[in-house]
Amino acid sequence: FILNFIYLYGLNLKLVIFLLVIVGMAIAWQHRQNCRVLMIYFIMSLALLMAYLGTKTLPFSFLINYERDNYAARILLVSVFFLAPFILITLYWLLAKIIKQNYFIKLAWLLFFAVLITASLYLSYPRFDRYFNSHGYSVSASDISAVQWIAENSSGDYIVLANQQVSAAAVRQYGFSHYYKNNIFYYPIPTGGPLYNYYLKMVYQKPSRQTMAEAMNLADVREGYFVLNKYWWAFDKILDKAKLEAQSWQEINQGQVYIFKY
């Protein structure tokens, strides 16, 4: 029940904010002689909204698919910030009404607001529950062990197809030490680079020898590694297929990370 309520609130949060803004605008209009300065905030928000709509038409083909809307989404979020004064007006108006009520009604409203604040706090954190997995993973000791093992066991120039956390571990340990043909970094960062697309093929399609060979040819190297973290979705399925295609494989930290050599 608790999670149902929290996510029902979360799903309708945009509607709640919209209603708070509309009510605040209506109140500000009624007192427009004293609220002229709020017109500046409204115009700024409207300008950013137009910028958001314009940005949605621009192609961001140099980014991976699920990151292409990030820039436009940030503009929309900033436009909402400029509407905060109208939300505050609504809350002030509502609190003024509540204060005039009897003790039990005020207590009920207090409990209601406490529940909403608690739900908002829960939704603001990375979560892994029955409804949502934030995938908010950070660099782990297993990631660092994996990049160290690869560096110690490689026999020449090589590339690694891995997620962003493993790539960050490599940069932390060894810096930007290897660049190959076409100015390709040996780990798949940034995510808009060509190697990351090959990594996505390995985890979302099939961890095939052919995909790794294409990535190796692009960078002009003879050795390639594919790194698979245990927390990745469809881990078991990808693991079994990768074992069939790879030349050899290595388990790190009791199976937290698997390394496949091609």
UniProtKB/TrEMBL annotation:
Keywords: Membrane, Transmembrane, Transmembrane helix. This is Glycosyltransferase RgtA/B/C/D-like domain-containing protein. It comes from Candidatus Falkowbacteria bacterium CG10_big_fil_rev_8_21_14_0_10_38_22. The chain crosses the membrane at residues 6-29, 36-55, 75-95, 107-125. The keyword Membrane applies. It comes from the Bacteria.
